[in-house]
Design a protein that fits this description.
By secondary structure, the protein is an alpha/beta fold. It has five helices and four strands. It has a four-stranded parallel sheet with strand order 1-2-3-4.
Length: 101
């Protein structure tokens, strides 16, 4: 079992300070959609650089342009990226193909 901490209503400096306090107790840190909207994928990169031993989940809730979005989140350091289950099959296929790279 892995423990995930969801960060939804913080900025990058607040996220890093919080993670310093709990890093040894968690396995995955979720960079929530509100953080991505406010800070961009730079939040994923900053957290991954500061905490390379944690898995970083980018909660993008991808619906379309999935291959491109997975590529950009991966480049930022995301280990896990969310895509909506209701996305059309081609989007899911594109996300999976890009993730395999």
């Amino acid at each position: 079992m892995e423990l995930q901490l969801a960060l939804d209503l913080v900025n990058i400096p607040e996220a890093i300070e919080l993670l310093k306090e709990v890093e040894e107790h968690i396995d995955i840190v979720e960079i929530g959609t509100p953080v991505v909207i406010n800070e961009g994928l730079h939040a994923v990169k900053a957290v991954k650089e500061a905490f390379p031993n944690l898995k970083v989940l980018a909660d993008l809730k991808i619906m379309d342009a999935a291959g491109y979005e997975v590529m950009k989140a991966s480049e930022a350091g995301a280990d896990i990226i969310t895509i909506l289950g209701t996305a059309e099959d081609m989007s899911i296929k594109g996300a999976v193909e890009e993730a395999k790279k």
